[in-house]
Amino acid sequence: MNTSARKIVSVGIPMGERYAMGPGKADLLEAIQATGSISAAGRKLGMSYRRAWLLVDEMNACFKEPVVATRLGGPKGGGSVLTDLGLEAVKRYRALQALAWDAVRHSVREYQRLLGQPSGIQPD
């Protein structure tokens, strides 16, 4: 599913008053997996370390077991990795997003035919 489709279809997985997973949390988990660090993942996504940490903490509290495991800093530094559950959670979430996009793709394209040209963008 491309990034513009991700902007159109937003799937949130509620857990009580919170959301266990949503597009931003999935992006954060993927960034943690790519960078090995909550702070680096936050920077990559343009969020503060505190915001990234709060989201990780919330996800860890929502799932049966943590989705992110952290190592404390030391001579070689700390770091973070996705647990097996975290990897599975992201994989299943992205599959749900793809299913949602498949369900609405045709209707969205039909709807977009009603729209004008965005300001500052020239047609091809």
Largest sheet: 2 strands, antiparallel
* Number of structural domains: 1
- The CATH class is Mainly Alpha
Low-confidence stretches: none
Question: What would you call the shape?
Answer: elongated
Estimated share of beta-strand residues = 5-15%
Helical segment tally? 5
Distance between the termini: 23 Å
Condensed summary:
The chain has 124 residues and is of the alpha+beta class. The protein has helices at residues 3-8, 23-35, 38-44, 49-62, 84-112, and strands at 13-15, 18-21, 68-71, 79-82.
Can you give a write-up of this model?
The chain contains five helices and four strands, in the order αββαααββα. The chain has one domain (12-99): Winged helix-like DNA-binding domain superfamily/Winged helix DNA-binding domain (Arc Repressor Mutant, subunit A, Orthogonal Bundle), CATH 1.10.10.10. The two termini are 23 Å apart. It has a two-stranded antiparallel ribbon. It has a two-stranded antiparallel sheet with strand order 3-4. The protein has 124 residues and is α+β, with helices and mostly antiparallel strands. A hairpin with a 7-residue loop joins strand 3 (68-71) and strand 4 (79-82). The model has no long low-confidence stretch (mean pLDDT 89).
Structural descriptors:
single chain; 124 residues; alpha+beta; Arc Repressor Mutant, subunit A; two-stranded antiparallel ribbon; 4 strands
